[in-house]
Automatic annotation (TrEMBL):
This is Diacylglycerol kinase. Coiled coil: none annotated. Residues 83-241 form the DAGKc domain. It holds the Pfam family DAGK_cat. GO terms for biological process: defense response; glycerolipid metabolic process; intracellular signal transduction; phospholipase C-activating G protein-coupled receptor signaling pathway. GO terms for cellular component: membrane. It comes from Populus trichocarpa. Monomer. SMART domains: DAGKa, DAGKc. Belongs to the eukaryotic diacylglycerol kinase family.
Length: 484
């Protein structure tokens, strides 16, 4: 983009090195190393004592922690058993991974106690936090040292896509708010389509080909890998009441709807508003990319036979995007295909700054993305790696997943996005922000489209009143296990 580029020879050499590194990493992720892991040794490291596994299971099933604790104390022998070196529970989204989910679940149950593997269609992570972990905590308070050691060492593996990982991370935030420490760190077996969260922490971008041996390696990495921090971002949508919206799973209605009062709101406010809130870890976007994602999700729901796996999903998604007016745009006939400048005002708080600053929306931009990770759109890096001189000139800092900042960039049209996705160019850098306020006003537009972490929705707009989107960092960070 605007940043200076290295010489052609340096670029070629860099690409060769990167290519070799990618092959090596893929081999490691897929379990192609000659290093073999003994199944019995791994089981000893992972398997929680049977009486604790049953207590956790019974607490979740009955939703009665006290009864499960009483039964456990009767048969546990006072917690004289030793906790394993790396106690772990696994959440499996058996609907992900091109039908590999059920086989993977069975394999995981063979490698550890059956009760340590939860199918998300049967047990959701919030139930585990509210009942399973509470059971361990109550036993620990009663003097069960094995339960205490297990609770303190516990880690969680998630087998699923980015949305599944976000679901588990979101459920664990309750431990922060209730001051129930420590919070278990999370590792990943990638089963989704993009798997950008998995890529960012060294767990690979796809379900490994040699998956039976790779699962053992992934489990060993999950209990021994270093713990990293990840920013999470709270999103609040405030819209005039009376407008009907079908929010995704990640957005929930809320009564708390107080916008930041440090920024003056132009125009009139409606007497009644509807508010939704959620948390994202990877990105939020508004505009054409969300419109394409919304259409693709509806197409896949109407024709589920098309979704046979990550590769087919990507092919269908690419083909569908060509039909949405992003590449060939009849701007005069459809106002919603024009630039976001027509409907959007953006304010941000920059690094180490408490004041809101209005940021002009570039006229040519038709999609704006606020990105937290280095990976977007199945492993692409649209922000790029700007040189130090360019960062200083723009007032930016080097991007990290735990720096308290979002990188905001724009995509102009389908051709521009295509070049960004194959990393021939960087996206249009707009800002870095510690907080974002978007004000959306319809004019000739009836709807706009938004998405966060791959979950899109159609956002209705009003001609009389604005819709606001406010994004702020959650005050505590999520914990991830690094799989490299």
């Amino acid at each position: 983009m605007d940043s200076s580029t290295a010489s052609t020879s340096e670029e070629s050499a860099g690409k060769i090195v990167a290519s070799r590194s990618s092959v090596i990493q893929s081999s490691r992720v897929c379990g192609l190393s000659v290093f073999r892991i003994n199944k019995e040794d791994l089981q000893r490291k992972l398997s929680i004592p049977k009486y604790l596994r049953h207590a956790i299971r019974d607490s979740i099933r009955s939703k009665d922690v006290n009864a499960a604790v009483d039964r456990c104390q009767e048969g546990s022998g006072g917690g004289r058993e030793a906790a394993p070196d790396g106690p772990m529970v696994v959440f499996v989204n058996s609907k992900s991974g091109g039908r590999h989910g059920p086989e993977l679940k069975e394999r995981l149950q063979q490698l550890m106690g059956e009760e340590q593997v939860f199918d998300l269609s049967d047990v959701n992570p919030r139930e585990f936090v509210d009942y399973g972990l509470v059971c361990l905590e109550k036993l620990a308070d009663l003097g069960d040292y094995c339960a205490k050691d297990t609770r303190d060492k516990l880690r969680i593996m998630v087998a699923g896509g980015d949305g599944t990982v976000g679901w588990v991370l979101g459920s664990l935030t309750e431990l922060h708010t209730q001051d129930r420490k420590p919070v278990p760190p999370v590792a990943v077996i990638p089963l989704g389509t993009g798997n950008d969260l998995s890529r960012s922490f060294g767990w690979g971008g796809s379900f490994p080909f040699a998956w039976k041996s790779a699962v053992k390696k992934s489990l060993l990495k999950a209990i021994t890998g270093p713990v990293c921090h990840l920013d999470s971002w709270h999103l609040l949508v405030s819209m005039p009441s009376g407008k009907v919206v079908d929010p995704p799973h990640s957005l929930k209605p809320t009564e708390e709807c107080s916008l930041d009062q440090g920024l003056t709101i132009e125009g009139e406010l409606p007497e009644k508003v509807n508010c939704y809130e959620g948390v994202f870890y990877n990105y939020f976007s508004i505009g054409m990319d969300a419109r394409v994602a919304y259409g693709f999700h509806h197409l896949r729901n109407e024709k589920p036979n098309l979704a046979q796996g990550p590769l087919s999903n990507k092919l269908i998604y690419s083909g569908y995007s060509c039909t949405q007016g992003w590449f060939v745009t009849p701007c005069t006939s459809d106002p919603s295909l024009r630039g976001l400048k027509n409907i959007l005002r953006m304010h941000v708080k920059k690094v180490n700054c408490t004041e809101w600053e209005q940021i002009p929306v570039p006229k040519s931009v038709r999609a704006i993305v606020a990105l937290n990770l280095h990976n977007y759109g199945s492993g692409r890096n649209p922000w790029g790696s700007p040189k130090r001189q360019y960062l200083e000139k723009k007032g930016f800092v080097e991007a990290h997943v735990d720096d308290g900042l979002l990188e905001i960039f724009g995509l102009k049209h389908g051709w521009h996005a295509s070049f960004v996705m194959v990393e021939l160019i960087s996206a249009k850098h707009i800002a870095q922000a510690a907080a974002i306020r978007l004000e959306v006003r319809s004019g000739e537009w009836k709807d706009t489209y938004m998405q966060m972490d791959g979950e899109p929705w159609k956002q209705p707009m009003s001609k009389e009143y604005s819709t606001f989107v406010e994004i702020k960092r959650v005050p505590f960070q999520s914990l991830m296990v690094n799989g490299l």
